[in-house]
Amino acid sequence: MPASPTIFDRKLLRARNRRAHQLGPATFLLDRVANDLAERLSAVLRTFDRAIDLGTPTDAVRRAVTAGGKVTNIVAVNAEAENLDAAFARIVADEENLPFADGSLELAVSALALQYANDLPGTLIQIRRALKPDGLFLAALAGGDTLAELRQVFAAAESEREGGISPRVAPFADTRELGALLQRAGFALPVADSERITVRYPDAFALMADLRRMGATNALVERRRLPLRRATLMRMAEIYADKFSDADGRIRATFEIIWLSGWAPHESQQKPLRPGSAARRLADALGTREISAGEKPDGANS
Q: Is the model's pLDDT at 255 over the cut of 50?
């Protein structure tokens, strides 16, 4: 089986997260996602005792789900455990190499971390195997439309000033692709949906400052190593203001959040009906006459 391509420099990602922690992290997006995750979990009519929070860079998710009473025992799994609150148990491990026995967990959650996995299909398979039958996986990832404006204006500025473009914004997956990955990983009842959050900034430089404090600056393996030229950077900011600003002069930045959920298979779960096993014909439900194969509707030309 071919190895997964290495898209993200995960060592650099960890260094960027440490820098964000030292700068004073910008957590508004992660805090919102954590609250939304807890709200989604509240709709599940059960509680969870053996749970993990996989890769989330702060304790926002753990605080939210334990406060809601749905989770009684949750462990942080993170390669940068020194950035986490000591109030929660921690395991130092990478999201791509989980240290859990098969069928040992009831719940796995994650917020804005798994989009940086180089082998996301393999990570999802590991999560599914680690869950007990009827265990739940619930995660939020950055989607493909995240920072679409920044990607577009960087490409325009570099093309204009330097005669070419380099990868500046990560190529995250879209909803359909991620939903298919859940199915491939063997999850039952897989669901993928998305939402878009628009954040406004005074200018492009304020956006980029926030991205540094999120630990979300460029960590692509194929990134350009040379410093960005000042003329290119200034031109990028001009194009951004021209194309994506509101009447008050503030610019818009899109963050797409893709929600994934799936269950470890269990015999109690709903299953699709076998073809031909329906108790009532579709034609009867619609009040129409069923037309057999080869029969032409009334009035059709011969």
A: yes
